[in-house]
Amino acid sequence: MSQDQENFRDTIGTINEEGKRAWVFPKKPSGKFWKYRTYVSYFLLAFLISAPFLKINGNQFLMFNVLERRFNIFGFPFWPQDFHLFVISMIIGVIFVALFTVAFGRIFCGWMCPQTIFMEMVFRRIEFWIDGDRGAQIRLDRQKWDAEKIRKRVTKWIAFFIISFLIANVFLAYLIGSDRLIQYITDGPLQHISTLVSLLIFTAVFYFVFAWFREQVCIIACPYGRMQSVLLDNKSIVVAYDHKRGEGEKGRKKFRKNVNREALGHGDCIDCFQCVNVCPTGIDIRNGTQLECVNCTACIDECDTIMEKVNLPKGLIRYASEDEITKKEKFKFTPRLKGYTAVLTILTGVLVGMLFLRNDLEANILRLPGQLYEHKEGNIISNVYTYKLVNKTTKDVNDVSFKLLSHKGLVKLVRNQDFKVPAQDLAEGTLFIEINNSAIESDKEKVKIGVYSGDKLIETTRTAFLAPRSYK
């Protein structure tokens, strides 16, 4: 492209020449890909709304309780002690998205991103229903504030607020847990003022995003759009305009009946601007791959419709790589894709292995800080410890006791010898370990302790045991 043709990269589609917000009024999309996206979006909407209310083995299917550092992913609970597992899960998610970006561009944004799904399949549909299609929306925007405009605006704003409020409730269910949210609703909002304030703040944020900020989230705020410029190459399959076919030798030309475009050297693009009018981010896909493009396929459907009407082949805009358009090369599993796939496979294997090896009850026994050993009658050495048992299951662990496995000795609890660890909770306390000095070989011995539920060994842990220096 020449320098003049590259000038579009100096600005973004949502900013006009004066530097002010250029409101995007996209045409209502239709076509094959739109139908497929609708099916996918409705499925994901149902999943996003139901996920915090579904349970597997008593665990919420998805929960991200940042305040208490408790996370549930696909029914697997992750406690603060499992933070390394949660980190690996997040890394796997990032690499998975990166892999698909290298292969298929920003397909996640157009087909699976919650921002796109809610914007295009919920809020934009309501807007089309109330305000009409692109032309009607532009006329309404320019229209004076008469009774019709006030009625439509107020109706739309109320609908947007109600939906934003519902989304905020679902979002809160992900954060604090669906059981707690339902309990708060049952108790009444005045009983939980702080939660109500948080809910209204989330509602305001969602309303701002979907009613005003809109596509600018994808263009300005979301870092993924910037990341794709690093990940994409000429072999990545993206929503692309076939400039070889569309421009021809002498460029685009408006459609005229009974005109031999090929003989005149003009391409198949009839410069109808329908691909621009239908774009939800206001770009011209004919300028090439741009960070604003979310691969929503609306331009593909619109262009195919126009090509069909003028009796030209479909696919002028399609899923294709730059190499496919310029060199006619088909998609290949490149070394980059193989590398990402290998890393993804290894990390997934590591995570699965760690999940299988993880115990349902985790025990931590630590010496009480600042305390030395105590020399008791009968040549017995005693150390004092604090213990913390975390029950990661949805069932109580009853009749819990400790036994010394590595040495002959006793474990004495400060309180009752047997106790229980409540479901999805922890138990803390103090205990003493007593060992005969003759059985100790060093002044800092490693001892192994077993945690029992009744007669069943459910966990083992190790800790340090201090004793007088041995002169054996």
Q: Tell me, what's the shape?
A: elongated
The amount of beta strand, in percent, is: 15-25%
Return residue spans where pLDDT drops below 50 for at least 5 consecutive residues. Answer: none
Count of alpha/pi helices:
16
Helix content: 40-55%
Radius of gyration in whole Å, from Cα?
A: 32 Å
Cα(first) to Cα(last) distance is: 85 Å
Kindly name the structural category: alpha+beta
Write down how many β-strands occur, each being a DSSP E stretch of 2 or more residues. Answer: 16
Q: Could you describe the largest sheet, including whether it forms a barrel?
A: 5 strands, antiparallel
Mean pLDDT: 89
Description of the structure:
With 472 residues, the protein is of the alpha+beta class. The protein is built from 16 helices and 16 strands. The protein has helices at residues 32-50, 83-104, 107-111, 114-131, 134-142, 147-176, 178-187, 193-213, 216-221, 224-231, 243-247, 261-264, 274-277, 298-309, 322-327, 335-357; strands at 55-56, 59-60, 62-65, 70-73, 76-78, 238-241, 317-320, 361-367, 374-376, 380-391, 397-404, 409-413, 419-421, 426-436, 444-453, 456-466. The strands form five sheets. Strands 8, 9, 10, 12 and 14 form a five-stranded antiparallel beta sheet that branches. Strands 13-11-15-16 form a four-stranded antiparallel beta sheet, with no helix packed on it. A three-stranded antiparallel beta sheet has the order 3-4-5. β15 (444-453) and β16 form a beta hairpin. The longest helix is centred in the middle third of the chain and has 30 residues, at 147-176. It is elongated and about 110 Å long. The model has no long low-confidence stretch (mean pLDDT 89).
